[in-house]
């Protein structure tokens, strides 16, 4: 399906240095849903480029002790919240929901947010940005997440935006790498 | 140690099937369903005993003709960290579950 094409495109766009996953998922209504009541379907997509793991295994690195128990600079939740507000409002304020536009928009927005957080130069933090954009159609949606991490150093930030025809939810998770 | 997306996706599919398998969308229960799906998946992932921090996100949406797009962008070490997304649907709802695994070893 188009997933394979998307995976190929993601592999072609591989850059050295930071690796970005550029997949987006859209959920469309199946026109002729005459399936049995209890049928359920699941599909799996891998956003990882499998090629990375086949590279020569790194030699085990010997690092000197830093004697540092906690991060020198903690992740600024409030600043990141402002970034999310800013980006979502500027990109989506006047937009109407359109499948093609929103597909591109999700990928663009997630890249932009990641770049702006990287500009904050917070050392030793790994960043995960997750964006959901959907149409407002009298339906309900629930987005929940749970994390297993060290709650003294790791944190998240979240912002939701909506206009007349669409809603957008942005989640940023920051994980400290000791 | 490398994150295995295959294993993770199997675990998640099982979790989702067991919790919202043959059920229709129900607004009053949606809260506990998302919580249950996410907590169960996290629990099973942890039982694998791998040195990873996990982030599990679940979005459940009623089928009403509306479209939904999801994208993620991650800044990490791609040789050890990984993610996996499972899209699941039944007659009345869609469920999109993303798992991000961040390694805690050099």
Automatic annotation (TrEMBL), chain B:
<dbReference type="GO" id="GO:0045505">
    <property type="term" value="F:dynein intermediate chain binding"/>
</dbReference>
<keyword id="KW-0132">Cell division</keyword>
<keyword id="KW-0243">Dynein</keyword>
<keyword id="KW-0137">Centromere</keyword>
<keyword id="KW-0963">Cytoplasm</keyword>
<dbReference type="InterPro" id="IPR005334">
    <property type="entry name" value="Tctex-1-like"/>
</dbReference>
<comment type="function">
    <text>Acts as one of several non-catalytic accessory components of the cytoplasmic dynein 1 complex that are thought to be involved in linking dynein to cargos and to adapter proteins that regulate dynein function. Cytoplasmic dynein 1 acts as a motor for the intracellular retrograde motility of vesicles and organelles along microtubules. Probably binds BUB3 as part of transport cargo. Required for the efficient progression through mitosis.</text>
</comment>
<comment type="subunit">
    <text>Homodimer. The cytoplasmic dynein 1 complex consists of two catalytic heavy chains (HCs) and a number of non-catalytic subunits presented by intermediate chains (ICs), light intermediate chains (LICs) and light chains (LCs); the composition seems to vary in respect to the IC, LIC and LC composition. The heavy chain homodimer serves as a scaffold for the probable homodimeric assembly of the respective non-catalytic subunits. The ICs and LICs bind directly to the HC dimer and the LCs assemble on the IC dimer. DYNLT1 and DYNLT3 compete for association with dynein IC (DYNC1I1 or DYNC1I2).</text>
</comment>
<keyword id="KW-0498">Mitosis</keyword>
<dbReference type="GO" id="GO:0000776">
    <property type="term" value="C:kinetochore"/>
</dbReference>
<dbReference type="GO" id="GO:0005868">
    <property type="term" value="C:cytoplasmic dynein complex"/>
</dbReference>
<keyword id="KW-0206">Cytoskeleton</keyword>
<keyword id="KW-0539">Nucleus</keyword>
<dbReference type="InterPro" id="IPR038586">
    <property type="entry name" value="Tctex-1-like_sf"/>
</dbReference>
<dbReference type="GO" id="GO:0007018">
    <property type="term" value="P:microtubule-based movement"/>
</dbReference>
<dbReference type="GO" id="GO:0005634">
    <property type="term" value="C:nucleus"/>
</dbReference>
<dbReference type="GO" id="GO:0051301">
    <property type="term" value="P:cell division"/>
</dbReference>
<dbReference type="GO" id="GO:0005737">
    <property type="term" value="C:cytoplasm"/>
</dbReference>
<keyword id="KW-0505">Motor protein</keyword>
<keyword id="KW-0158">Chromosome</keyword>
<protein>
    <recommendedName>
        <fullName>Dynein light chain Tctex-type 1</fullName>
    </recommendedName>
</protein>
<keyword id="KW-0944">Nitration</keyword>
<dbReference type="Pfam" id="PF03645">
    <property type="entry name" value="Tctex-1"/>
</dbReference>
<keyword id="KW-0813">Transport</keyword>
<keyword id="KW-0493">Microtubule</keyword>
<comment type="similarity">
    <text>Belongs to the dynein light chain Tctex-type family.</text>
</comment>
<keyword id="KW-0131">Cell cycle</keyword>
<dbReference type="GO" id="GO:0005874">
    <property type="term" value="C:microtubule"/>
</dbReference>
<keyword id="KW-0995">Kinetochore</keyword>
